[in-house]
Every structure is written in structure tokens, then in C-alpha cells.
Amino acid sequence: LREVLPIPAAIECLELDEQALVGYSDANPNIEVAPQNLAYVIYTSGSTGKPKGTLLPHQNVVRLFAATQGWFRFD
């Protein structure tokens, strides 16, 4: 993939082939998530100054889905 992408020389790339991954588990890790844990980051455009990121916890995501369930009918 690296050979077909236009990656500038100044950008360092980490390449892992299958041999480098031997010995690592392919099972999903068992991770407990709390409501206050980070779910995602929304980055601003920086139109009013320096670009910033807004950190959104899982509790906000759950609240969003609950508030819009009537519109979108999430399953």
C-alpha cells in the first residue's frame, strides 16, 4: 500500500508485516468502558483562531442516541 500512496518523504511510516505480528493475540481485548471515558474527539476548523479538539465522553454519546431514538429508530 505504501508504494501506491503519495506519502511525502518527511513523513515517517511504520510498516508491520505478518511476521512482525506473530505472537500477538487476534482476540479482541476485554476492556471495560465507563461513562466518563473518552468516546471520540471533534476537531474544530480553527476559523476563530487556533484549531481545537472537543473531547466527548461515552455518556454524551448515549444521551445523543437516547434523544434521537424517535427520529432514527436505532436497533
**How many runs of DSSP E, i.e. beta strands?**
2
Strands across the major sheet, in which order?
1-2
The helix-strand sequence is HEEH
Distance between the termini: 36 Å
**Content of β-strand:** 5-15%
Mean pLDDT: 89
Backbone CA Rg: 20 Å
Helix content: 25-40%
Sheet/helix structural class = alpha+beta
Unreliable sequence segments: none
Could you give a short account of the major beta sheet? 2 strands, antiparallel
Number of helices: 2
Shape: extended
Write a brief structural summary.
The protein has 75 residues and is an alpha+beta fold. The protein is 25% helix and 15% strand. It has two helices and two strands.
Give a description of the structure:
This protein is of the alpha+beta class and 75 residues long. The protein has helices at residues 18-21, 58-72, and strands at residues 38-43, 53-57. 25% of the residues lie in helices and 15% in strands. A two-stranded antiparallel sheet has the order 1-2. The longest helix is centred in the last third of the chain and has 15 residues, at 58-72. It holds the Pfam family AMP-binding.
